[in-house]
Amino acid sequence: MVREEPVWKRAVLDLSAILFLIGGIIGLVSIVMMIPISTVYPFRLTAGISFILIVVLVVGVICAIEALECYSFASKRMTTKAGMRGIVIGAILLVIGLLSGSDLKTQILIGSAILTLIAGAINYVYRE
Questions:
Q1: Which of 2, 67, 55 is CA-nearest to residue 28?
Q2: Collapsed DSSP state (helix, strand, coil) of residue 127
Q3: What are the C-alpha distances in Å from 3 to residues 10, 18, 75?
Q4: Cβ(1)–Cβ(73) under 8 Å?
Q5: Is 44 helix (H, G, I), strand (E, B) or coil?
């Protein structure tokens, strides 16, 4: 006999999937907004972009895409994978956000990192 999970547990896990989705999309948008316009407009790289900024952007994009993958895991009820990856990804995004400065784009990134951390913690608590 298959035992059905309680409604409250299903609702909490659905909430964590939504938090992964929102955190991943907002994180991706805020990372893309961190690219200086001077590097895009004249269609050439100027001295305005540093190696550290390139590393932050690449790591941030990878983490935001992984948060969207955690959404996929959470919606399929693979809570162990979603929980561990979500906590690690959220922590990396939080460190990137805290080291990047205090402007609005960085605060949005920190908010998405917190959403991802909360969703990862929920999935880690309810892992099977």
A1: 67
A2: coil
A3: 13, 25, 19
A4: no
A5: coil
User: In the chain, what are the helix, strand and coil shares in percent, each to the nearest 5?
Assistant: 80, 0, 20
- Cα separation, 42 vs 84, in Å, equals 42
Amino acid code (one letter) for 124: Y
Per residue in 38-51, pLDDT tens? 655 555 655 567 78
Instruction: Render pLDDT for 13-37 as a digit per residue (tens, 0 to 9).
Output: 999 999 999 999 999 999 888 877 7
pLDDT score for 123: 92
On whether the CB atoms of residues 60 and 23 are closer than 8 A, the answer is no
Element housing 94 (H / E): helix 79-100
* Cα–Cα distance, 25 to 88 (Å, whole number): 17
**Alpha-carbon dihedral 94, 88, 90, 9, rounded to 10 degrees:** -150
Distances in Å between the Cα of 11 and the Cα atoms of 5, 15, 70, 84 are 10, 6, 17, 20
How far apart, in Å, are the Cα atoms of 19 and each of 11, 115, 119? 12, 6, 6
